[in-house]
């Protein structure tokens, strides 16, 4: 991309282009009005350099580049731009260029299709077994729905290219899983734009039930802090039912009738399949609800391993900083762990290049590690068990420390009350004398 830089300046013009000179002279900025931008994550970069974000979200799309080059110019003084490491932006551009030249962003439809067909066949098998073992079959279909979540994740990131990716996503998220692809993209784009930034990454909204950091722990009641390390995973199975309501409401409010139709088709297909398999109403409901709860536990568990227990990231962090600080890898060299977790085991690489086909992410691990070392940033890779320990222990320690702080505050407040009462007695005694 050369000397081009991007800057987001105001709510009236959330994404701008900045052509930077060699000195600190005013910059040339090209503005996109809010109403002209269909995305959700752009407004999170107000007043900050958005070069890497544009490359990740729009680098695949020729139309976005064409629109960018047609915009009017605006002069922006260097003093109005927040201090960020320019070398990080240059490094991201260099890596993106290198990976594109190596063909690592080219879709891999055969691998994804085989993966998807295996999941579809497993769903059919689980439905067939539902009349005989509804709980076990429910766990099986829940695992399949979690895998559908991973497959739609690929489509949502346009891994199948601009033409087919969203159709791929709607099939797995809407028809097979009964969810909303649009709701997911709206939330997930923000997660990538501001990974682990409190108040901007929606995936950190786990309060008032759980918290991994002292800031969010203040919003969690005492009883939950005491038990959160033990109740986190079971609670995910309950939370998914609450989330289901939010997702369906989103599609109706936004008038996404094609997604509502896919949801209705999802229920109709599973009801018909269970009827054909000979499942009773009780067995069918047990099968479906077990599966729905299990997919929540499965998805939440693997997502939590890669993000929840690591540091929170400042809003002004560069893309390189937020990726390295806000993500970890576990068993990153294992293809088996990759498919088991929907490649959430290599989140550093995925956050560096979210539109790269998941099967290619292992090929850029050395590049990402070298960039982290170059700029003195953490590159954390660990075993599966170490990642589990980090996540669960993070919940336990956060709860323990916040409860201690609250206990100390209460003791201090009581001591102040006692001192106040004693002082009042002394004053009254002196007055009486």
From TrEMBL:
InterPro entries: Cyt_B5-like_heme/steroid_sf, FA_desaturase_dom, Fatty_acid_desaturase. Pfam families: FA_desaturase. CDD domains: Delta6-FADS-like. It is found in: Membrane. GO terms for molecular function: oxidoreductase activity, acting on paired donors, with oxidation of a pair of donors resulting in the reduction of molecular oxygen to two molecules of water. Keywords: Lipid metabolism, Membrane, Oxidoreductase, Transmembrane, Transmembrane helix. Belongs to the fatty acid desaturase type 1 family. This is Delta-4 fatty acid desaturase. It comes from Isochrysis galbana (Marine planktonic alga).
